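To close the section, here is one more complete example, presented without commentary so you can practise reading it yourself. The ligand is iron/sulfur cluster.
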Amino acid sequence: MKSLTFRHGVYPPHGKQYTENKPIERLKPKEILVFPMLQNAGATCEPLVKKGDKVLVGQKIGDSKKFISSPIHSSVSGVVKDVTPMLHPNGMKVMSVVIENDGAFEQGTTLLPHEKYDSLSREEIINIIHEAGIVGMGGAGFPTHVKLSPPADKKIDTIIINGAECEPYLTSDHRVMLEKTDRVVEGLKIILHLFPGAKGYIGIENNKPDAIEAMEKAVENEPNIEVKALKTKYPQGGERLLVYAITGKEVPSGGLPCDIGCIVQNIDTVVAIERAVIKGRPLMRRIVTVSGGAIKEPKNFNVRIGTSTRELIEAAGGFTKEPVKIISGGPMMGISLYTLDVPVVKGTSAILCLTEEEAKLEKERNCIRCGKCVEACPMNLLPCTLNSFVLRDDFESFEKYHGMDCIECGSCSFVCPSNRYLVQSFRTGKCTVLSNRKK
Ligand code: SF4
Ligand code: SF4
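Output:
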């Protein structure tokens, strides 16, 4: 099978050998779980419970009236110990519900299961996905009910399931495709039911031949679904690049995949859709890869949302040596953690504990105008030039030179011989432009 791809990109060492053959293990959380009221792109939730309240598994504990938001559910039964600002993986303190787990996992009333969803209307399915608190689980956390509700003038003809998992070390999607193959297909069929006439694709990098084989077998009687092998290249799983690799169509600058008839969903998100619609279960768990050279027994865990990162590290045997860097997510796009006392949230795809050799912690030096960042950029930007605009506070030029199209993939930083802090400066540039626009 021909492997599809995009232009430019980079080839970081993949580091997946630590966990790609490790079956997913269920992790039972200990006493205390923390549920930050910010687990999605968009509006923050308001807590629906107070200190001393008894909560059940699946009970809604946070919600917002805003459309671009997603409710939060308790993943354990127990008592609300506090409702107070707590440290979020993003480094900020965020209003959180702290629950003392009673270990009974007493089930609350959740959503209605629908073994047969064919008779459900589009609005009913979207409502289930909304009520189940499902967000994009690749890390972005965009509410799924919003993504599946494009403007009426956007005709959706292509649904792409992102099985690229191009970030080094991460193997959670890989394991889901091997272990929950039929559920991925069922979740995709539910989405296709929302867009009659659309075709479904599952894009998988060719460094996962067993996942390609398993998914191909699972869809052999599904004429409307095709598996596409993708070249192993970073950032193959970037939404726009995946759309280009599979359809040959480019998402316009400043636009969205729905502008060219496409919707992209992550593997674990699709399984969450299947679980919500068919089993009536809200989003309370996710698969997390715990890996890196400083971890004793790297593993893939099925983790209840709210579990402490410290518990994950302990369950993976602890450290072999002190990590120099701990990351929530992948090494290219993840967030550095400064403490292990932060919870797993809906967007936590991995916890990576890197050694000095892996972390590349060098000081920034002057740009030598080598152009390697330009060659690497999948968005055809000029990273060195954009960097100089940000350093000069020239955000008008940053915008004019398409800085807002940066997908923050980190490819330019990865290849830069001067270790310029490129992607960090683009995040600053994009935030400043957005806040200037609001003014
Ligand atoms: S400029 Fe942005 S999109 Fe281009 S390589 Fe750098 S981080 Fe990626
Ligand atoms: S890769 Fe680094 S040193 Fe080379 S042009 Fe880009 S910013 Fe400058």
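Once you have examined the tokens, check your reading against these statements. The domain at 112-279 is CATH 3.40.50.11540 (Rossmann fold). Residues 422-438 form the longest helix (17 residues).
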